[in-house]
Amino acid sequence: MTAQIIDGKAFAASIREKVAGHVARLREDHGLKPGLAVVLVGEDPASQVYVRSKGKMTLEVAMASFEHRLPAETSEADLLALVETLNGDPEVHGILVQLPLPPHLNSDLVINAIDPAKDVDGFHISNVGLLGTGQKAMVPCTPLGCLMMLRAQLGSLSGLEAVVVGRSNIVGKPMAMLLLGDSCTVTMAHSRTRDLADVVRRADIVVVAVGRTEMVRGDWIKAGATVIDVGMNRVPGEGGKTRLVGDVDFESASARAGAITPVPGGVGPMTIACLLANTVTACCRANG
Ligand code: GUN
Q1: Number of structural domains, the chain?
Q2: 161 and 251: one domain?
């Protein structure tokens, strides 16, 4: 079997187009302009790339973009003061503090200082609780993007065996909650799971977010399964350049899977598209 390639780039472009339409209607009908504030502390190169890309795409859908770049040595008090200011700013509907923060800053404290209604990352403890109890929550962007691709690919997910590999707060845990919400039978596996290959072999749906280059091999995949690769690992490429690869060995996995996301061009573009969609949602909820 040769897997169908799930085109996250095209899917994300269609979501951004819908978001742009929604933004235009909010402006014309209600005089509203959704605004997204992104806070970057320090100079982590990968974070700088993401933040630049978020700012560019925010402007492309005609939303307001507010970027706050703070030095790595910023104190916790100063960062919390900025979050408070953004919480109180009526032009800001969504706030994203780029992670990871420098080690002297307590990310839990900072994230939980964000107004939950503006928490477009869905990382605030109240949004985590709302999602976990099946209530209306801000849903984390990466797992939301994965869920949208799975629904588009498979239709109803009800009763399917889903294995999530990776237990991070950003992807693995919320992904498991979303799949449970769609009535999958969910197994949360991780790097310490015993007989991981056998666990993955049970799955109709495999979502991998462990941050380990090409860890999941083709012979771990049940024939016809749908594979979502959240990994983004930089490895040495040709001519001294680096190239991006996932947590799944694409070549062997695509020989067995029914459908698979590529890296790059799979999950990555969906994350930012969902962030923009969450910001529109936050703006609509803030304005009744
Ligand atoms: N760092 C890596 N992914 C994310 C994300 O989705 N949100 C934030 N805030 N930081 C990240």
Answers
A1: 2
A2: yes
